[in-house]
Amino acid sequence: MTHGATGIRASILDGDIDKALKHTNAHYPRVLDENPHIVFRLKLQKYFELIRKTIELQNPEPAKSSTATNGHGNNAEPDVFESSMELDEANDGEDWDKMETEEATSSMRYHEMIQEAMNYGQMLTREYRDDSAKKKFLDEAFSLLAYDDAKSSIHGHLLESSGRVPVAEELNSAILVSLGKSSSAALERLYQQVEALVNEVGEDGGPGTLINVTNDYLP
User: Fold this and answer.
1) Do 72 and 80 meet the contact criterion of CB atoms below 8 Å apart?
2) Pairwise CA distance, residues 141 & 158, whole Å
3) Residue 155 in contact with residue 144, Cβ under 8 Å?
4) Tens-binned pLDDT, residue by residue, of the chain (219 aa)
5) CA–CA distance, 19 with 49 (Å, rounded to integer)
6) Which among 173, 194, 193, 192 is positioned nearest to 184, based on CA atoms?
7) Rounded distance, CA 179 to CA 170, Å?
8) Are 106 and 57 in contact (CB under 8 A)?
9) Full-prediction pTM beyond 0.70?
10) CB of 95 within 8 A of CB of 66?
């Protein structure tokens, strides 16, 4: 049973909230029923993950050129060198076509992800519209879409991967309690990991300096 809890925790740390919810519902349904605040935090974390994905699509890692050196030195035979040049030119044309196709696909996926994030945000608004205690957290989360660079915004720290840790540990702790086990070890690990991660992302005045675990992650 605890192996399932470990897998659920790992899913959250990987940013796969849907998988975590699916397995929690399958193995520990009472945990979610008895801890609605944890359900809210999971759903809010899913929203953050959607925003993170849109940022990754908007700012993809630069691809390495597939037409690097042709492997011939300065002393290569002229005819061999010319043949290699012609082959490289043909490959360049194919690469440009491939790049244009990939850019179009990436752009389409980006707009799909933006729409998915907006739709999910609207669903959360409807679900928690009568819960004034959640309004602050929802307002901060939804404001991320208003920025061209959400990670550099005033609430950009909400997108840090360190935010997954307290969510994962709180759910893991609730699962242990439901199994009649002590949650103290999980809570101790939570504080240790959060402190380490916050210190890491806060180096040299980074976004971690804006993180307050109590205020930002404990509705």
Assistant:
1) yes
2) 8
3) yes
4) 455 889 999 999 999 999 999 999 999 999 999 999 999 999 999 999 999 999 888 776 554 444 444 444 455 444 555 555 555 565 656 666 566 666 667 778 888 989 999 999 999 999 999 999 999 999 999 999 888 888 999 999 999 999 999 999 999 999 999 998 866 655 555 665 666 676 666 565 555 455 555 555 544
5) 13
6) 173
7) 14
8) yes
9) no
10) yes
Residue recorded with tokens 């011939």: 72
Number of other residues whose CB lies within 10 A of the CB of residue 79? 8
Radius of gyration of the chain (CA): 23
Distance between start and end Cα atoms, the chain: 28
> What is the Cα–Cα distance from 156 to 140, expressed in whole angstroms?
10
Tell me the CA distances in angstroms from 215 to 11, 158, 210, one per residue in order. 24, 11, 11
Contact criterion met (CB below 8 Å) for 31 and 180: no
Q: What are phi and psi of 174, to 5 degrees?
A: -65, -35
